[in-house]
Amino acid sequence: MDGSIDASPFSVTLLQDDESLRRWKEQLLGSVDLNSVGETLEPDVKIMSLSIQSPGRPDIFLPLPVEPSSGKGVWFTLKEGSPYKLKFTFSVSNNIVSGLRYTNTVWKTGIKVDSTKEMLGTFSPQPEPYAYVTPEETTPSGMFARGSYSAKTKFLDDDRKCYLQINYTFDIRREWPSSG
């Protein structure tokens, strides 16, 4: 005997018998059947919609999935100096998703001008979609702020599993685009 022990079955037993872990899962899962949420099932998160909300304006709904051909054009246009919030709706199935977060990086003429990381939270599977609205921000303004931007948005969890990655371009203009 070399003094080493195989701890893997012991660890699994500890996790299965951990009362605090069981209570945490019950709290998160609510009325979900605990037997239907297996230890081996990966959570599945589907981003169902993305929209931009700006006071006094109709919401801008961004089409998902992003068509490869539309990736070359401008996805949306915002008015300089305008307050806005982003709204995401998403569904969670199979298992609890821990530490879901949204990251967005923006470049103008190849220079990184903004990077956002927003923790959305931990979510359990449920039939109804979740909705999350970001805190209000304001688009930059001025002659140097106007123009085209490229950006990359990702939705990741604590295990760095990526559920959606979008590369897109958008414009900031002096005025909102005409709706007609």
UniProtKB/TrEMBL annotation:
Keywords: Cytoplasm. The keyword Transport does not apply. PANTHER family: LD16419P, RHO GDP-DISSOCIATION INHIBITOR. It comes from Aegilops tauschii subsp. strangulata (Goatgrass). One of its GO terms (cellular component) is cytosol. Belongs to the Rho GDI family. It is found in: Cytoplasm. Its main location: cytoplasm. One of its GO terms (molecular function) is Rho GDP-dissociation inhibitor activity. This is Rho GDP-dissociation inhibitor 1. One of its GO terms (biological process) is Rho protein signal transduction. The keyword Methyltransferase does not apply.
